[in-house]
Write a structure and sequence with these properties.
endoplasmic reticulum; EC 1.14.14.16
């Protein structure tokens, strides 16, 4: 969609396709508009045959900002054609909740795309798989397996605290120096997911850990570039370096995870799961249609979703603390008062640390990891905002616009953690806050992500003070779009507090 994201072959193909338009008359476009007559009251971006609205969408702005700009002109619900795909863009919380919650099952479908099929063995994961009976069985299995590591369980806390201890040792070794936190945090969070998923704990320079980091990074970077084959699948006939790299990374990933799965089958003790793979294998009943492929793709998704989002949110948090040192001082004071220095923070401290929780919430509001949710698809003819929506319509929910809507957030572009606290200083969750989505397709790992973020941030701030290195600039807060919205790389000085 953004020309800057296209490789040279894709750009060439794109312009060749423009010339092909001359072979198609306006009859094609007019006929398509008639087929959606129930939507005529909705603002629709200009479209042309084959390409749809893509020419109109060319912009240097990332999609979430472009759609926010278009929403201010056309309203919080407008339509466009992504190539041949009729698509609605939602930029207001009431409409988003209609899609995600009130008509959640109507809009629970997922589009079939080349890259996600490659990534998930044809939709055998949770996030990208279409909504059906098999998906519901798979999700129930994943939820019950995740519950073994969620609230009320000490397993995830032990795993995270061990990783934090190793992370703090790394940071202590380079105290007073200028440090790029990105690779250090990425390694620590990856280690958490490795231990959670298949029980392996790695030293910092273990080659297998580096292999996991490399293939995960390769997948994320490739998907982040965007690909026209997801809009026009027939473009697969042309050479595509991104698809080749994606296939290579997925092959390395699947080989490693298959080895881990087979090892777990041989050593599995029923009803005594050591990790997520054990829990998934123990939960298989053979009746729901869930297979080894589904288990492998669940494990793969834990890396794809869990590593990037958690590490990115922590990087954004530190970046904002550098911009707002008074917020960091307040966090230090809260930790000193409620936890002290004689022990590590634990999950039981969450209610005692409402300001820390509010800081995490504000970071996820102002810089959501997923500014636009994974596309939804109408499973049947339905309605949205009083308009008819035909079956097969794609729907994009612009979380960025919802989290920056001045009708619901006072001065939304300002970093204000107190907006998540009531007059008594207790944590609240405003109704326009949807960082993990909602409804049937809500993020299945939400609880685990919140636990990780709380433990990482509380332990880091208990021990360290973060500041801007001498002579360096404050971090750029605009971000760089990708699979998740990441901050630009920055350096930080880390000093022990006690």
């Amino acid at each position: 969609m953004d020309m800057a994201l296209m490789s040279f072959p894709e750009t060439l193909i794109f312009y060749c396709m423009v010339s092909v338009l001359l072979l198609f008359g306006l009859k094609c476009t007019l006929g398509r508009r008639r087929s959606f007559r129930g939507m005529t009251a909705l603002p629709c971006l200009p479209s042309v045959p084959v390409l749809g609205s893509l020419l109109h969408l060319r912009s240097t702005l990332p999609p979430y900002l472009l759609f926010s700009k278009l929403a201010s002109r056309h309203g919080p619900l407008f339509s466009l054609y992504m190539g041949p795909h009729y698509t609605l863009v939602v930029s207001e919380v009431a409409l988003a909740k209609e899609v995600l919650l009130h008509r959640g099952k109507d809009f629970a479908g997922r589009p079939k795309m080349v890259t996600t099929d490659l990534l998930t063995r044809g939709g055998k994961d949770i996030a990208f798989a279409d909504y059906n009976t098999l998906w519901r069985s798979h999700r129930r299995l994943v939820q019950s397996s995740f519950a073994l590591f969620g609230e009320g369980s000490s397993k995830l806390q032990t795993i995270v605290l061990d990783a934090v201890d190793s992370l703090c040792s790394d940071l202590q070794a380079c105290r007073g120096q200028s440090v790029d936190m990105c690779p250090i945090l990425m390694r620590a969070v990856t280690n958490v997911v490795c231990r959670l998923v298949f029980g392996s704990s790695y030293e910092p320079h273990d080659p297998e850990l580096q292999q996991v980091i490399d293939y995960n990074d390769g997948i994320v970077r490739t998907i982040a570039r965007g690909s026209l084959v997801d809009i026009f699948p027939w473009l697969q006939i042309f050479p595509n370096s991104d698809l080749t790299r994606l296939r290579d990374c997925v092959q390395i990933r699947d080989k490693l995870l298959t080895t881990k799965l087979e090892e777990h089958k041989l050593s599995l003790t029923p009803r005594e799961p050591r990790d997520l793979l054990d829990a998934l294998l123990s939960g298989l009943d053979g009746d729901g249609g869930v297979t080894d492929d589904h288990i492998l793709m669940t494990a793969a998704e834990a890396f794809g979703a869990g590593v990037e989002t958690t590490s990115t949110t922590l990087l954004w948090t530190i970046a904002f603390l550098l911009h707002y040192p008074e917020v960091q001082e307040r966090l230090h004071a809260e930790l000193d008062e409620c936890v002290g220095t004689g022990r590590l923070p634990s999950l039981s401290d969450r209610t005692s640390l409402p300001f820390l929780e509010s800081v995490l919430c504000e970071v996820m509001r102002i810089r959501p990891a997923s500014p636009i949710l994974i596309p939804h698809v109408a499973m049947q003819d339905t309605r949205l905002g009083g308009h008819e929506v035909p079956k097969g319509t794609r729907v994009l929910v612009n979380i960025w616009a919802i989290h920056h809507d001045p009708a619901h957030w006072e001065k939304p572009d300002q970093f204000r953690p107190d907006r998540f606290l009531d007059d008594m200083g207790k944590k609240i969750s405003p109704p326009s806050y949807l960082p993990f989505g909602a409804g049937p397709r809500v993020c299945v790992g939400e609880s685990l992500a919140r636990i990780e973020l709380f433990l990482f941030l509380s332990c880091l701030l208990q021990r360290f003070h973060f500041s801007v290195p001498s002579g360096a600039s404050l971090p750029d807060l605009h971000g760089r779009p990708g699979v998740v919205l990441q901050p630009q790389r920055y350096t930080v000085t880390v000093n022990l507090r006690h």
